[in-house]
Amino acid sequence: MHAMVLRSPAPAASGPLSDEERPLPQPGPGELRLRVAACAVCRTDLQICEGDLAARTLPVVPGHQVVGVVDAIGEGVDGWAAGDRAGLTWLAGTDGTCRFCQSGRENLCEAATFTGWDRDGGYAEAVTARADVAVRLPAGYPDRAAAPLLCGGVIGFRSLRVAGIGAGSAGARLGLYGFGASARLAIQVARAWGVEAYVATRAAAERDRALELGAAWAGDYGDTPPVALDAAVTFAPVGSVVAAAVRALDRGGVVAINAIHLDGLPAMPYEDLWWERSVRSVANVTRDDARDFLDIAARIGINTDTETHPLADANLALARLAAGEISGTAVLVMDGRPA
Fold first, then answer.
1. pTM for the whole thing?
2. pLDDT at 328
């Protein structure tokens, strides 16, 4: 099969992935093999490939927003059949026995593994995965439209939950700091719940897009929203943006940081945190997050903006992401080589 493999992290512009032919992987007990149809490109992939996020295993095939069809099933798997359409998310597995897993917080499992980081991901024509972490996909979404839902969508949804925003939050004032692919999906969920959205982002085109998607206001990072916020989610991996979001909070407000890598947090006066304002990180996702979000996506008809690249152009997609040239989400699609 054809796979794009990271052997040593390097700047995206230098092409860190090597184009390789590999044997078709075989599913072990409890696993599925998917013939990959599409895999969205995430900023976390970029951070792993460039070394901002230290690789856990090398060589590794990146990619954790995977859409495919089951074509082989390992021993002991129930509930899946050849031909089923399935998706993979960032979460590749947990131990299922620790106190976090036992209390519905498997995203905090210390033994958790992650797709495209601990085990090979979807920048390939086939991938194996634990059957119990694979998710069923809404029938109405084509492969390339479904792929961005599996990380940008799910982690954005979890970020809303961490910030205290849910189906009963109509009228709440939510700040979204940064307006890339994940924020564009999160705002659609928030607006469906009747939440007011206030967007801060650097690019004028992104501010325009935010208003098109129903934001009540859009400004730059240095601008102050016209109302105090009940909650905010930061998507930019920049500490100064977190500080700006905290300053915009009303009493008791929460900032959820949607980033696996952050450049640091600046010193903040205690007055900015006073009145029970708080800052929380968003760590990974759970299987329930994925299932709940995909159900909502199907019900409200979330739109995904994508640009497609053949698998062999994965380095180009990463370079365009690094340069800020992608509007929406880059999605790798299989380019027709024999697997």
1. 0.92
2. 85
Strand locations in 78-188 (E) = 85-88, 91-93, 113-114, 126-130, 135-136, 173-177
Identify the sign of the CA torsion 168, 172, 175, 176: positive
Domain of residue 221 covers 154-281
**Total domains, the chain:** 2
Each residue of 90-104: pLDDT tens digit?
999 999 999 999 999
CA 258, distance to chain mean position in Å, is 9
At 73, give phi and psi (nearest 5°). Answer: -135, 130
pLDDT above 60 for 339: no
Amino acid at 289: D
In this prediction, residues 112-131 reach a mean pLDDT of: 98
Same domain, 83 and 203: no
CATH number at residue 182: 3.40.50.720
User: Reduced to 3 DSSP states, what percent helix, strand and coil does the chain have, rounded to the nearest 5?
Assistant: 30, 25, 45
State the amino acid at position 159 in one-letter form.
Answer: S
User: Is-contact 331 40, C-beta < 8 A?
Assistant: yes
The number of C-alpha atoms within 13 Å of 237 and in the hemisphere containing its C-beta is 12
CATH code of the domain covering residue 50: 3.90.180.10
Q: Which of 281, 305, 320 finishes a domain?
A: 281
264 vs 212: CA distance, rounded Å: 32
The two structure tokens encoding residue 78: 């129930």
pLDDT band, very low/low/confident/very high, at 338 (cuts 50, 70, 90): very low
- The residue type at 285: V
159 in the same domain as 145: no
Q: What is the mean pLDDT of the chain?
A: 95
Give the domain-ending residue among 265, 281, 297: 281
Residue 176 shares a structural domain with residue 220: yes
Write the pLDDT tens digit of every residue in 144-183: 999 999 999 999 999 999 999 999 999 999 999 999 889 9
Q: Which residue has the tokens 């206030």?
A: 198
pLDDT band at 140, cuts 50/70/90?
Answer: confident
Are both 131 and 170 inside the same structural domain? no
Helix ranges (H only) for 22-107 are: 43-50, 99-102
Pair (96, 11) in one structural domain:
yes
